[in-house]
């Protein structure tokens, strides 16, 4: 099956910076420079329009009606929170509403670029006004409030109204820092630097960014999961699917004008050298043993990454300012040989959790799968060990069998999808043979994708954990497990994406071998469950529901204004492998009794209700007395959690069984005895951290990494409850053979 027919991934976020950037050290000179379209972009746009209007699942002509949709979405894409444009700006371009289709077909994109240039002008004006406001001091005794989510608000009608919005925004930023203990001088310095950084990042946008934003306004006006990918975005998409790249093995981050080493991958060229440390700042990059060094101070991070990545076995040189050196410290230059880097952090992983059930312990194997990845190119070439989610999970299941777990939980929370083939083959690990998903093309032709490999990799009980972030391929797998009666689905209703995408390389239409027109990720089919229903809009409904954390009104397929409708088709012919309807009510009863007494679970529900209340109100007071009262209440809640975290864990809490391999690694790199206590303290601090008024890159890198580490180590209440549910299932199956014969698939060797 071709690569383009295998994609069932969620839409990418396309508004970040990508290909063709001018060196960002010239950014300071670009503030007044009007961006213009390139000829190649006009060519890419017209070819994209021909493909989209003819071959999309929801083929829609590029006409005046579509032009109006593009117009509205383009303005919202540029200014989602409606803080820069005013209604007069939209009125100025009212005549353009029905001319954007002509701009594409006529290969003249100056109109959308003119709109963008007005946006840049407004951006500069608003930021300048915000910085000017810092010279005054806000009055926090007034009884006024700030609407922090303006996505659904109306455009400001005039300059006076938009200035008042910015006055309140600056006032809120100031108050947050004041409540965190900063004095006026420090607040002014922090905010002035923050707003200056906003301007600096904005100036680094180039014509490729503008083109990508505009093309996605067009593509997503047809259907939410259709996107235009520029050359660099396309490359990044491939990397995410194959979980590998050729480079040095360092995760980079922009902090002010520096590109900073955020993480060093173990076993990579950077890690093996011993010369690359977290916090080191890259000053310049050179190619080969003696190529000239290119100064990258102030560059966009994707441009720096493009210089550092390169062919396997080639050499790259980095001139770096060590993490512990001051701004005037002496840089060091190191040479690294690029290698193939495997992104193991995003691969499937397993843990074993033990739960007490009376006098016995139940062992539940948890497999976390972040995405349905596959190295398409390696598979096409017939490489023996190509990267594959199904292969990795099969290996982990074999290990869990040897470790004698009683049940297996597949954790698909926030797994946005990936390869459709992987979803089918992963399902095949748990069923003998049979249909997994149905696809319907734009012409109405229905094809059934089936598991054709006999046998099961795991024939014991299984559960699937999902949330609102579980989409596409995740929903195919969860729905198939549910329809076959093969496993219990636990969590909150999934995303609701029931469409299949293809990748179309626009370079095939280009003139000349050097065309770089990008790719279209285009919806070409809708998938259906084997029972005839679809996950489109409705998602997968869990057998046992856990508290819903996500806001369904603003996240998920149903939040899109142009999502495809829910429909049904004829069911496929399949034989259920089991029947869970008899056991689910028993597990639900145990679940409800347990969470009613679980303080951590009740705290989580309180938190969810608190966030829901804030979302609904969508207003925050700018009165200092009111905000201090609210902060005191939050701190009181945090102290209760701290006391709970500091207390001894409940004897009923699932306990993670150490992996022998990990134990060996820890023994080799053993830390002082006090490290465990420090780690626990950091977890408590991270779980209860109050608002410091800062944004991510305004904190020190060490503080940011420590907070992330603490959050990662914090107790996962929902996972623990899902493990409890599967442990309960084991207990019921072991004590009721009739129930076991209905729930578990029949296999001759059982």
Automatic annotation (TrEMBL):
Residues 238-309 form the PDZ domain. Keywords: Hydrolase, Protease, Serine protease, Signal. It is an enzyme of class 3 (hydrolase). Gene3D superfamilies: 2-enoyl-CoA Hydratase, Chain A, domain 1 (3.90.226.10), 2.30.42.10. Residues 1-21 form the signal peptide. Pfam families: DUF3340 (PF11818), PDZ (PF00595), Peptidase_S41 (PF03572), TSP_NTD (PF17804). Belongs to the peptidase S41A family. It comes from the Bacteria. One of its GO terms (molecular function) is serine-type endopeptidase activity. InterPro entries: ClpP/crotonase-like_dom_sf, PDZ, PDZ_sf, Peptidase_S41A, Tail-specific_protease, Tail_Prtase_C, TSP_N. Its EC number is 3.4.21.102. This is Carboxy terminal-processing peptidase.
């Amino acid at each position: 099956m071709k690569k383009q027919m295998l994609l069932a991934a969620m839409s990418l976020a396309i508004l970040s910076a990508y290909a063709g950037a001018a060196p960002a050290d010239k950014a300071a000179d670009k503030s007044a420079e009007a961006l213009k379209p390139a000829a190649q972009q006009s060519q890419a746009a017209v070819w994209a329009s021909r493909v989209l209007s003819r071959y999309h699942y929801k083929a829609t002509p590029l006409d005046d009606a579509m032009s109006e949709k593009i117009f509205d979405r383009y303005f919202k894409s540029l200014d989602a929170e409606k803080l820069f444009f005013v209604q007069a700006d939209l009125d100025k371009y009212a005549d353009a509403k029905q001319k954007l289709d002509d701009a594409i077909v006529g290969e003249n994109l100056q109109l959308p670029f003119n709109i963008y240039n007005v946006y840049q002008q407004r951006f500069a004006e608003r930021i300048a006004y915000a910085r000017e406001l810092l010279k005054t001091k806000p009055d926090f005794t007034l009884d006024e409030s700030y609407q922090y989510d303006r996505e659904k608000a109306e455009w400001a009608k005039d300059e006076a109204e938009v200035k008042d919005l910015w006055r309140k925004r600056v006032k809120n930023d100031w108050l947050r820092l004041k409540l965190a203990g900063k004095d006026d001088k420090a607040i002014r310095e922090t905010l002035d630097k923050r707003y200056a950084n906003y301007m600096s990042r904005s100036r680094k946008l180039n014509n490729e960014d503008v083109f990508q934003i505009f093309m996605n306004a067009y593509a997503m006006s047809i259907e939410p999961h259709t996107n235009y990918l520029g050359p660099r975005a396309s490359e990044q998409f491939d990397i995410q699917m194959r979980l590998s790249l050729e480079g040095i093995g360092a995760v980079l981050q922009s902090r002010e004008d520096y590109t900073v080493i955020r993480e060093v991958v173990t076993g990579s060229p950077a890690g093996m050298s011993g010369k690359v440390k977290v916090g080191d700042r890259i000053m310049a990059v050179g190619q080969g043993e003696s190529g000239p060094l290119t100064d990258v101070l102030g560059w966009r991070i994707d441009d720096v990454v493009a210089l550092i990545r390169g062919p396997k076995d080639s050499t790259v040189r980095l001139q770096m300012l060590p993490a512990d050196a001051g701004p005037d410290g002496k840089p060091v230059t190191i040479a690294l040989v690029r290698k193939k880097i495997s992104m193991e952090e995003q691969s499937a992983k397993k843990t074993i959790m033990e739960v007490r059930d009376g006098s016995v312990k139940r062992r539940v194997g948890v497999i976390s799968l972040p995405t349905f990845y596959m190295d398409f190119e390696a598979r096409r070439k017939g490489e023996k060990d190509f990267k594959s989610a199904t292969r990795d999970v099969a290996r982990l299941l074999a290990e869990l069998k040897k470790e004698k777990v009683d049940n297996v939980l597949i954790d698909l929370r926030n797994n946005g999808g990936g390869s459709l083939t992987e979803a089918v083959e992963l399902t095949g690990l748990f069923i003998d043979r049979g249909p997994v998903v149905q696809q319907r093309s734009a012409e109405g032709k229905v094809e059934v994708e089936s598991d054709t490999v006999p046998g099961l990799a795991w024939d014991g009980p299984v559960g699937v954990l999902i949330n609102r972030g579980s989409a596409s391929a995740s929903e195919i797998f969860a729905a198939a497990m549910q329809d076959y009666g093969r496993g219990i689905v636990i969590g909150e209703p999934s995303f609701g994406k029931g469409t299949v995408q293809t990748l179309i390389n626009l370079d095939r239409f280009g003139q000349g071998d050097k065309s770089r027109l990008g790719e279209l990720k285009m919806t070409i089919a809708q998938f259906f469950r084997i029972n005839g229903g679809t996950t489109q809009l409705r998602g997968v409904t869990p057998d046992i529901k856990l508290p819903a954390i996500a806001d369904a009104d603003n996240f998920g397929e149903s939040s899109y204004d142009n999502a495809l409708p829910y429909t049904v088709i004829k069911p496929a012919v399949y034989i259920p492998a089991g029947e869970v309807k008899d056991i689910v009510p028993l597990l639900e009863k145990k679940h409800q009794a347990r969470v009613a007494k679980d303080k951590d679970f009740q705290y989580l529900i309180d938190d969810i209700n608190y966030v829901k209340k804030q979302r609904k109100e969508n207003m925050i007071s700018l009165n200092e007395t009111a905000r201090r009262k609210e902060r005191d209440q939050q701190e009181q809640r945090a102290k209760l959690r701290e006391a709970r975290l500091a207390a001894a864990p409940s004897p009923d809490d699932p306990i993670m069984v150490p992996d022998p391999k990990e134990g060996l690694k820890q023994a080799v790199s053993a830390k002082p005895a006090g490290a465990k206590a420090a780690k626990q303290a950091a977890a408590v601090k991270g779980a209860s951290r109050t608002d410091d008024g800062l944004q991510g890159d305004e904190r020190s890198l060490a503080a940011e990494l420590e907070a992330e580490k603490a959050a990662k180590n914090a107790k996962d209440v929902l996972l623990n409850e899902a493990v409890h549910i599967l442990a309960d299932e084991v207990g019921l199956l072991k004590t009721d053979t009739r129930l076991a014969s209905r729930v578990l698939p029949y296999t001759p060797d059982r």
